[in-house]
Amino acid sequence: MIFTKSISRFARNTLDCLKYIRLLKEINIPVFFEKESINTMDAKGEVLITIMASLAQQESESLSKNTKMGIQYRFQQGKVMVNAKHFLGYDKDEEGHLIINPAEAEIIKRIFREYLEGFSC
Hints:
121 residues; mainly alpha; Rossmann fold; three-stranded mixed β-sheet; two-stranded antiparallel ribbon; 4 helices
C-alpha cells in the first residue's frame, strides 16, 4: 500500500492521478490518501478521487495564476525579486534595490572575458 498525504501531493492533474491509480490497482497496490481518507481499493474510491483530484487541479492552477499575476504586478511596479544572497555580482541596499558588489563584479568580468577568449564552463 502507498500512503500519501493528499491527492494534490500525488499528482498535479486529474488525468495523471487516475492513470497512476489505475496502473497501481492493476498490480494490486492500493493508495491511501490521508487527508481525504480515501482508499483506492474501496468501491467509492475512484469516484471520490475523480472529484477531489479535479478540485486539487483547479486549486493548483489558481495558485499558479495568482503567483504569476503577483510577480507581473511587482514587475510593473518596478519591484524585481532577486535573492541577492545567491546572485553573484549584486547585493541589496536598505530599500531592497540591487547594487553592484565590486569584489564579485570582478569575478563576473573574468567569467565573461574568459568565455570570449574561448574557455568553457
